[in-house]
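Hi support team,

I'm filing this because I wasn't sure whether my run with pyridoxal-5'-phosphate finished correctly. The job status page said complete, but I'd like someone to confirm that the output block is well-formed before I use it downstream. Pasting the exact inputs I used:
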Amino acid sequence: MHSNALQDKSVPSSPAPAEIPFLAQRVERYYRERAVNPVTGGHILKGRTPAEGDVLLTSNDYLSIACHPEIVEAQRRSLHDEGHGIPRSSVFVFGDSPLRSLEGEIAEASQAEDAIVTQSGWCANTGLLQSIASPETPVYIDMFAHMSLWEGVKSAGAPARPFRHNSVESLRKLIAKHGPGVVVVDSLYSTNGDVCPLREVIEAGREAGCVIVVDEAHSLGVYGGRGEGMVAELGLADQVHFRTASLSKAYAARGGLILCSARHAEYLRYQSLPAIFSSGLLPHEIAGLSATVRVISRERFRRDKVLRNAGALRARLRALGYEIGEDATQIIALVAGAEHLTIQLRDALEARGVFGSVFCDPATPRNRSLVRFTLNADLTAEDLERIAQVCAEVRSEVDIDQWPLPRAQRPQRMAA
Ligand SMILES: Cc1ncc(COP(=O)(O)O)c(C=O)c1O
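And here is everything the job wrote out:
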């Protein structure tokens, strides 16, 4: 009866409840500042819809495995055999189970003692920080750390002590002032592709007796011989208490991850609020992820290819005068700065069939909005050539000389 009513257009929908002033004000602000941009009249996050043949640099499927036949077949078989299984919170899963096997497989592939697979990277980060920090624990967090980490600090009621992006000096000063706590960084920053100086950050934290948390959402799967991520690649796995990740990047699925000691894993399974109060992954997602661990460990050529693609495009963009940072990662940010400049850049690229992702406040500081290119293993030499050509074409139209520079390069431009 309910679904018939929905289909029957002659049944009127209920009128919306009367507006309440405090909510009306917040919503009005969104419409005024975001939905209709006063300069362009458009929404900064809503560009064109890509057409056939356009180049998409918007996906986090870095290794191009979203349609991998082995992974799809594992999911198909699971769905066929057990449907959606028993939907429930993972707190009720113990003993031998596909979830525990998957956790063992990911831990082994990532050089960790144990692992917890969560519903998302957001749940991993919020659940972890809420379980390890408290109002008495200072949390030293890089200013560019992912929002889910900030949200975890907030939900712990812990005092956030943000340090300047990638500045070990700033981190050390804060630790000296506030004492031991939790140090929180991303290994590879999702908006601008910067790499964290992991060795130095970890050393600063360790010397002061801090717990170390590294979000590896964008490095797990892509870095390391078997895709174990940057921390393990650098031989630092035994110095980081918690490595977290989203499994919707190189793993191209839906889920999150915490890599840690077996003792901490047991604690988190029964402490993290998302682990207790939100339902776990479905059987076909777990089966698909198990296959994904095998594919990622085995198919090293995908890692090599995405990083080769990144190197080639970065070299072309640098030669064109784009300031894209020093690192060699698969995330390339064109930081236009003010939002109207980012919209202009997006429109110029999209008009020529190249699609990146727009990032703006609150994902970036207010005047450092950007178009992000995420590269993948399937991009061909022709695709890279086309992207470079388009970037060459739009270069003067979008006037890249007025874009903001990374802090380290500002004096050079002024001198020039
Ligand atoms: C660095 C980082 N951490 C955590 C997350 C959250 O992951 P998920 O999308 O699985 O919730 C993301 C995704 O945007 C991310 O980029």
